[in-house]
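Pipeline run #58 for the internal structure catalog. This entry was flagged by the ingest filter as a single-chain record with no existing model, so it goes straight to prediction. Upstream metadata was stripped on purpose; only the residue string is passed forward. Reviewer on rotation: M.T. Logging verbosity set to normal.
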Amino acid sequence: MKKLFANTFSSFKIRNFRIYYIGQMISVSGTFLQALAQDWLVLKLTNSGVMLGIALAFQFLPMILLTSLGGVIADRFSKLKILYITQTISGILALLLGLLVLTGTVQIWMVFAFALCLGLVNSIDSPARQSFVFEMVGKEQYKNASGLWVTLISFARVIGPAIGGVLIATIGMGQCFIINAISYVGVIFALAMIRKEELHSVPLLKSEKGQLKEGLRYVRSTPILFNTLLMMAIVGTITYEWQASMPLFAKFVLHGDAGIYATITVAMGVGMLLGGLFASSSSKTSLKRIIYSSFIFGVCVIIASFATNLIFSILAFALVGIFSVLFANLTNSTLQLNTDPKMRGRVMSLWSMAFFGSTAIGGPLIGIIGQYAGAQWALAVGGIAAIFAAIVGFFLMKKNKNENKIDTNKTELVKPN
């Protein structure tokens, strides 16, 4: 038991990661608190699933268009300095929107503008943040650190919405944005305490033409990276649209308010917490594991779509949370551990684009499905997409094995002179 505990939390022995982790735990909890408040603010202003999807499109469209550029920036400049800037700007944006809500002057176009600005910042922040975790812990500890990072996100998903649901029900939505703005102080303080000499930094890339295309060619020519990113793109675009599907599910299927939305979000967060702890205790990654997790993930989402009462929903979304984390962690770790260090920023920018940026497409689509076909279908379609991704991954894996056999046979036919 003691050995299992030590293996699960082994990367906490690294001072930089431990300090950064604590700062992010505070900040990310505020982020999820704000996400819940933003979703409910859009529904309050418009009562429309389509408008909720449009708000998500504004937030995540920059991540489709600019995250690849963000990956190049992450390879060219100090990731620590990048995070100082992006985290500070994110805090200022949260403060401004909070003041607009508290003064009663907020309008839907302002929410769209805020979402767009936040998306622009995240397109630079996300690839730098993904790569920075690797720089703090190194290759040997990355799989463990990745699992613990997912556990942090899961914990924040529990704490943030729980606080948000209480705040919205008692004193209003504006305070949620203000609290998130304050939470960024924690991560800024943590960044200031990072010891640069203990980082596993790689030489920064010099500014040259064609670096973005070089990254794309590298991924396309490396089957394990291409196949993983393709599966992530399918699941990220359709399945991971919780900000669109879950508010609609809470309001129109469970006939609840922000408190019910917070409850099922917390249930998913608990499942993600358990999944993250399991992921951090395992060091194995493979395309086969990604395929299995995608398939089971899809089945769980479909089961959740049939829930019609709160108890069933809580159990179902907890199960969804477990396999949601396992899939995300496996794809992230597989990419990090199989990527040339000088390409890491660009490769992880593509993962961020597939995971987060694809919401610019999937968010409005799920919003439309929820609006016209029903909230249950908004979830079910996501489950079907995850199963489809597993099937695609399976055939790609078989294709690559067959190609390798052909190459081997060709090699064996060549006789030495």
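catalog note: Residues 108-170 form the longest helix (63 residues).
catalog note: Residues 10-199+212-409 form a domain with the Growth Hormone; Chain: A; fold (CATH 1.20.1250.20).
status: ready for reviewer M.T.
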